[in-house]
Design a protein that fits this description.
Peptidoglycan-bd-like; PGBD-like_sf; 323 residues; PGBDSf; 13 strands; single chain; Peptidoglycan-binding protein
Length: 323
């Protein structure tokens, strides 16, 4: 039996429904009218509802990262341009009635349909879509995924503490809609044994998909081995390993914060154990593999549009994937 909703929950749902209706109405007004709306006008308070409507449709179609925020910046503009060109519609820096109509009519299956099989990349995408996670579909866009407790082939493995038994992956959707893995390297999403001394427990990144990393320099607590990495920029959800088990347990403390330094970096010298290399960061064992990872993410069109781009990352337990 479903739990009874509180008055506050009902009010929040009603407000969201009203917002969705207002956004759809604003987009329909452009689609049925004769006037174009420039993208510069979309990035203003006066056009906030319309900007959010366009963003919501671009997100649903796999062209733009969540979330809807009304800030129609470089990546929202690029996503709109890519959508228009894919539809063979003229684009000159404006939302036209024809583009607005196409945004309303297209669905993910009709716009950029996926061709999913039984391979590992397809299994990951199936899982992410079932969990309502974002999978980038445009050409050249990458999706960052970590598989916890996994072999290279995606077979679930024992998630032993202090071992390199996770995978860092980059996925893309190839022409024809087939998902492909363009990088698959050994990593850890969990802290090493030498980090157990923290009284309140070392950080573990929460399972799920989060947005909060930019290209920068990882230095670590000691300041040794500085190197290019994806560094935390924004609020991320973690759990504190309160009982020092090396895993996420029911008694662990869940936190969300912006200053925890949960970076995506690398170890050096291919260490046999995680040890001191992770105090909660997402760490690749091999530095050369990490450098390839950085080269690839910097080729992503969203990063090229703005170097302040915040990357999304999904952390998935391999045992959760569809068989």
């Amino acid at each position: 039996m479903a739990p009874t909703k509180t008055a506050a929950q009902k009010a929040a749902e009603e407000k969201k429904a009203e917002e969705r209706a207002a956004r759809k109405k604003a987009l329909e007004a452009v689609a049925t009218g004769n006037a174009d709306v420039s993208v510069k006008a979309l990035d203003t308070k006066a056009r906030d509802t319309l900007a959010r409507a366009v963003q919501a449709r671009l997100i649903a179609l796999g062209c733009l990262d969540p979330k809807v925020d009304g800030e129609f910046g470089p990546n929202s503009q690029r996503a709109l341009m890519a959508f228009a060109r894919h539809q063979h519609l003229p684009y000159d820096g404006a939302l036209t009635p024809k583009i607005a109509h196409a945004l309303l009519e297209e669905t993910p299956d009709s716009f950029l349909p996926l061709t999913l099989g039984k391979d590992l990349a397809s299994r990951i995408v199936k899982y992410m879509l079932a969990q309502k996670q974002f999978v980038a579909r445009l050409d050249g866009y990458l999706t960052i995924v970590y598989l916890e407790g996994s072999t290279k082939a995606g077979v679930p493995a024992r998630n032993v503490f202090d071992q390199w038994n996770d995978r860092r992956m980059l996925l893309r959707i190839a022409p024809g809609g087939k998902p492909e893995i363009v990088l698959n390297i050994l990593a850890t999403t969990e802290p090493g044994r030498l980090q157990k001394e923290r009284a309140d427990g070392t950080a573990h990144i929460a399972l799920g998909q989060q947005k909060g990393w930019v290209v920068g320099t990882h230095t670590g607590a000691s300041g040794n081995n500085p190197h290019e990495a994806l560094i935390q920029r924004g609020r991320l959800a973690i759990v504190r390993d309160k009982n020092h088990s090396g895993h996420r347990d029911k008694g662990d403390t869940a936190l969300t914060g912006s200053g925890m330094g949960i970076n995506q970096h690398s170890a050096f010298r291919d260490p046999s154990h995680v040890g001191e290399w992770s105090a909660g960061c997402l760490v690749a064992q091999d530095h050369e593999g990490h450098k390839k990872f950085m080269r690839l993410v910097k080729k992503d069109p969203r990063y090229k549009a703005t170097h302040d781009y915040r990357f999304m990352t999904a952390v998935i337990a391999a045992k959760s994937l569809p068989k």
